[in-house]
Amino acid sequence: MSTQWAEKIQxxxxxxxxxxxxxxxxxxxxxxxxxxxxxxxLTHALNYGTAVFGGLRGHWNExxxxxxxxxxxxHFRRFVDSARLLRMDLGQSPSGLWAxxxxxxRKQETRTDCYIRALAFYGDETLGVRLHGLTPEVSIxxxxxxxxVANDDNAHASIxxxxxxxxxxxxxRGKIAGGYVNSALAKTDAQLAGFDEALVxxxxxxxxxxxxxxLFVVRGGVVVTxxxxxxxxxxxTRRSVIExxxxxLGIEVVERPIDRTEVYLADEVFLTGTGVQxxxxxxxxxxxxxxxxxGEITSRLRPALAAVVRGxxxxxxxxxxxxxxxxxxx
Length: 330
Ligand code: PMP
Description:
The protein is α+β, with helices and mostly antiparallel strands. It folds into 2 domains: 19-144, Aminotransferase class 4, branched-chain amino acid transferase, N-terminal domain (D-amino Acid Aminotransferase, Chain A, domain 1, 2-Layer Sandwich), CATH 3.30.470; 155-314, D-amino Acid Aminotransferase, subunit A, domain 2 (D-amino Acid Aminotransferase, Chain A, domain 2), CATH 3.20.10.10. The chain has helices at residues 3-12, 14-17, 44-48, 72-85, 94-108, 180-192, 236-248, 260-265, 296-309; strands spanning 24-27, 30-33, 51-61, 66-70, 114-122, 136-144, 155-159, 197-201, 207-210, 214-219, 222-225, 253-255, 268-273, 277-284, 287-288, 320-322. The strands form 2 sheets. Strands 7, 8, 9, 10, 11, 12, 13, 14 and 15 form a 9-stranded mixed sheet that branches. The longest helix is centred in the first third of the chain and has 15 residues, at 94-108. It is globular. The model has no long low-confidence stretch (mean pLDDT 93).
C-alpha cells in the first residue's frame, strides 16, 4: 500500500484514532466501569456475527449547555426490530433502552458531540450455528464523535463490485452485525482504489446505498431515493431528510429504484447517515456529478440538518431528546 493511501485510511478510521476508551458502559441492565464490561472468547456473537447494533448521535448545544440525542426512540425501535429479526427478545422497550442510555451519558458526564453504539448480542459462550436457545445481552457505549468520511463536501464514490446483501440472504433493513462484513468489503476496496466511498448495487442491479449510508440523487429539481424494499437500511437520517426536503424546503421527493446511469447523469448525489450526516458526492467513477461541485439542494440541506440535530430548529425540536434536564421525550 502506498504511503499516501495508508495515510488516507488512517485519517478516515477515526475509531482507531480515539484517544481513550469510554469510562463507562451500559451492560446487562446497569452502568458499570467500561473495563468491567467483559465477554469471553467463545461468545456466540463474536464467532458467528449474531448481534445487532444501533448507531446514534449526541450533539452538544453550547448555548443551552445541553446534550441532545437525535431521535433516540426511533433508533431504539429499529434496534428492537433488528433484534427480532435474530429472534432476540431483549425484554426492554425502546423507552427503557433510552433510559439506560441517558443514565450512561449522565454518569459519564458526556458534554461533547458523541457517537453512541448500542449492541444486542448472543452472549452465550457456546459453539453451534443457530439462533434459538441463546440469551441476548445489551450493551451501550458513547465515544466522542469523529468524521466518518473524509471530503464529506466533495466525495468521490465508486460503484462497488460487491453486491448489497438482499432480504432473502441476510436482512438488509436491520443492523445485523454479521451483515456489516459486506459493507466493510465494499468500503475498504473503494478506499484502497483511491475513492472516498462505495455505492452498492442490489440483487436486481439498482444502486441502493453507500457502504453505511442511504442514497439520494437529484435530477431536474426532483430528489429520488430508493424505497425500503430495495435492500436498504431503513435509515433514521433518510427519514428525517425526506421530511426536511418536503416540508421545510418544499422539494419533491420520489421513492423509486435508481439505475446506475441515472447516478452518472444526476445533477446532485448525496448520502445520509447518523455517522456521516450528509455527504455531498461530486464524482462517481471519475465522472463529475452535475458541475462537479456540491449542488444547491445538498448545500441547503446540510446546514438545515446540522441545526436540527443540535436542537436549534424549533420546528423539529421534538426530534432532539435532552440528556441532562428533566423529561424523557425521544
Ligand atoms: N445504510 C446502512 C447500511 C447503514 O449502516 C446506515 C447507518 N446506520 C445507514 C444506511 C444510515 O442509517 P441512519 O441514518 O439510521 O444512521
